[in-house]
Design a protein that fits this description.
The chain is mainly beta and 188 residues long. Helices cover 4% and strands 41% of the residues. Strand 6 and strand 7 (91-103) form a beta hairpin. It starts with a helix and ends with a strand. Mean pLDDT is 85; it is low at 1-6 and 11-20.
Length: 188
C-alpha cells in the first residue's frame, strides 16, 4: 500500500529560465585613450511590455531611451561593465552584461608649437613642448640658422628667445626612446 501512495504523490517542481538580453554589439569593446572617447550607443532588443534598467561601473549615461542608452566613457584605463535588466508585469526578467575596456595610449602625446612671440605681452612668451606626455621629455635643444646650439636643457624647460633675432630656429627633443626634430618661428 505504501508503494501506491508514493506513486500518487504530486511533486511541485520549479524551473528557472535565464534569458540574456542580446546587446547589439556581440564582442567586448576596446577603446584607446589617445584622445577623448566619443559617446557610445548601446541597445538591447525592445519589448513594449518590459521596463529597462541600466547600470554602468564608470562613465556617465548621457541619454536613456528605455532599451538604448548613450554613455560617455572616462579616459582612465580600466574595464567597465554595462548591465541591463528588465522587469515585465512587475516580475524580474532578463539580465545582460557587456564589458568595455579602455587601454592606455601607446603613443606619446606631444604638441610642438610652430611659433612663439617673446614680446612682453604675457601671451605665448616661451617655446616648450605641450601635451599629456610633456613630462617624458629628457632634453630640449635649440639651434640657430647656422646650426649653433643656443639653448640646451634637461627636461621640458621653456626657451624664452632672449637675445635672439626674429627668425626660424630648429629644435631637437629627446624622450626616453624617441627623437623629434622640427622648426619654430620666433616672432616679436
Amino acid at each position: 500500500m505504501d508503494q501506491l501512495q508514493d506513486q500518487s504523490n504530486t511533486f511541485n517542481m520549479k524551473w528557472w529560465v535565464f534569458i540574456l538580453l542580446p546587446f547589439s554589439l556581440l564582442a567586448q569593446e576596446t577603446h584607446v585613450n589617445c584622445d577623448s572617447i566619443s559617446p557610445q550607443n548601446y541597445q538591447v532588443d525592445f519589448d513594449a511590455n518590459k521596463v529597462y534598467y541600466w547600470g554602468i561601473s564608470g562613465g556617465e549615461i548621457t541619454y536613456n531611451n528605455g532599451n538604448s542608452i548613450t554613455i560617455q566613457w572616462p579616459n582612465e584605463i580600466g574595464t567597465y561593465v554595462i548591465s541591463a535588466y528588465t522587469t515585465r508585469f512587475g516580475c524580474e526578467g532578463d539580465t545582460s552584461y557587456y564589458e568595455v575596456t579602455i587601454k592606455d595610449c601607446p603613443y606619446l602625446q606631444l604638441f610642438f608649437p610652430n611659433s612663439f612671440t617673446p614680446n612682453g605681452d604675457n601671451h605665448n612668451e616661451t617655446f616648450y613642448v605641450h601635451g599629456v606626455d610633456k613630462d617624458e621629455i629628457k632634453s630640449l635643444v635649440i639651434y640657430n640658422r647656422w646650426g649653433e646650439k643656443i639653448h640646451e636643457v634637461s627636461g621640458n624647460i621653456p626657451w624664452d628667445g632672449k637675445n635672439c633675432q626674429i627668425g626660424v630656429y630648429s629644435y631637437s627633443v629627446r624622450t626616453h626612446n624617441q627623437h623629434f626634430t622640427g622648426t619654430v618661428h620666433l616672432v616679436r
